[in-house]
Amino acid sequence: MIFFYASKTYLKNLADAPEERADTEKKINDLRRRNKFAKGMNKPKWYDKGIWVLKQMGQGKNSRVIFQEIFDHKLGDNYQLIIIRDYISQKRYEPYWRARIEPMIDKGNYLHEFPLDEEEKQIAIKSLFNEINKPIPPKEIAPSKMSDWLWDFSVDQHFTIYESPRWASLSHLISRYLSDLFLLIRKIVLDDPDILSNRINITRRSLWEANNDIVNIIYEKTGLIEERGNDLFETIFLHSWWPKEKEIEEAENARKEAIGYTSFESVQNEIYTRDIVSKGAYRGYPASIFKQNTREVWERIQYNSNKSNLALAPEQEKLLHQFYFPKFINGQAGSGKSEMLMYLFAELCFQKECDNFDGGIVFLTENEELLERAVLDTIEKLHFNSQYSGYKFDKAKIKENFNTFRGLIIESLLDEEQQERFKESKYVNFSLFKQRYQESNLSQSIKKRYPAEIAWFIIMTYIRGYDSDKDELTPDDFNQKLPKKERSFVDIDTYKEVFDKIWKSFYKKYLEQTESWDRIKLSPTCFT
């Protein structure tokens, strides 16, 4: 942690340049966010014997701030005491800085010519210890309108109608028979005494076939155990359907597939667990769609092959139902992590739309492609999921809740001048790096030995990403400062070649010449 102490000389000389004061104090405040001042850093620039100089440049804006680190055993390793020794304004720049002070600092004579007053040093040390020992005030409790929703947040799907993958695969044929299918399913749900149905002779299961004059449906009436309370309630599992006119060609295959449905092999005594049903289902929705006769909701589900009404596994339903913040969702590829996240954020957008809490919400992701996918998925869930039927959502308003990490940083932490330097058109991601790398004049042997993926990893993880106080991690730094375990991923010869032949000869020059930027270049700008 850095602690700054402003010397009397610094305060006096800064007060003599009132037009430069605001910018200088802003720069100093930005530096307070640093973890430390390190040897070799450039902003501010490090000199020998614990001296750093912050250079502020521009037409009519040339000025310097001189810092000195105080070395005292009482401070320990957790705190760094930096005294702001002097401010050299634009007015004093040419006669004083260029002619006298800069040569003195370059030669290491500054502290000899301008020794720090011992009394001021002791006051600075005492001020640091007073700051360290200052009682930490209790954090302000968030207003109830902002926090109450956290303790009662859940996404309850409570599906009682499920469809098999075969049913969903027939969606391209459904438009002509939509009304007849809806009315027939409604009769099944309401257990209409006038329904034309018969039970299929199969042990352990409750398999049925129903029809009207137009369509046939083969379905399962399941006594589903609700794990949360061991209650038994009826669920309908829709296996397949076919038009009456195709009875001969379709019926036999549909019946055969339903009877041999492998997901239901473990059913006993017509009792189906949620685990059995959800693993055998493609999607689901509540029976209230049919009880309330809301055909348009069911039509949207049938016509849209998105993930808005996917049948969830029991552990996924449990996660959504018993959700407590904060939560870390972990799992292997394809396990449904993103799907859970989208269900949760859609519910959050819904509650925000209903004005259930104050404050904004934000969904952050790494790149534009992932962002657009997340926006689309959330909008589809709000528009097509049966849970939100009857509500209208403003797509543009929903989209305002999404951002990339870099987008949020630029919008929230950078001023207008800084934002101008980080235009999206100049952003370099891995895809663009790979393209420019392959097009570069580097030798083919280098490109073959170090594919773009390896070069990018070493540059972003080690050369530029390891030490936030340095512009680059030299091969000597890599060899001497990194723990052995962290060096085990890259051997020193590989590191040297990537540093010299790819970073310095190609990528560093590309960033400078095109005024481009990447996420590593953006990060320190937030703190300088």
Features:
alpha/beta, seven-stranded mixed beta sheet, 15% strand, 528 residues, 46% helix
The overall pLDDT average reads 87
Oligomer: single chain
Shape: elongated
Structural class: alpha/beta
Strand segment count: 14
Strand content: 5-15%
Which stretches are poorly predicted, pLDDT < 50 over at least 5 residues? Answer: none
Q: How would you characterize the largest beta sheet?
A: 7 strands, mixed
Rg of Cα set: 34 Å
Q: How many individual helices?
A: 25
Notes on the structure:
This protein is α/β, with parallel strands linked by helices and 528 residues long. The chain has helices at residues 8-15, 18-31, 90-106, 110-113, 118-132, 144-147, 165-169, 178-189, 247-259, 274-280, 288-291, 295-303, 314-321, 337-353, 368-384, 395-399, 405-413, 416-421, 430-439, 444-449, 452-463, 475-481, 484-487, 492-514, 519-525, and strands at 2-6, 45-46, 51-56, 63-70, 80-88, 161-163, 196-199, 207-211, 215-226, 231-243, 271-273, 283-285, 363-365, 402-404. The strands form 3 sheets. Strands 6, 7, 8, 9, 10, 11 and 12 form a 7-stranded mixed beta sheet that branches. A hairpin with a 6-residue loop joins strand 3 and strand 4 (63-70). Helix 21 crosses helix 24 (492-514).
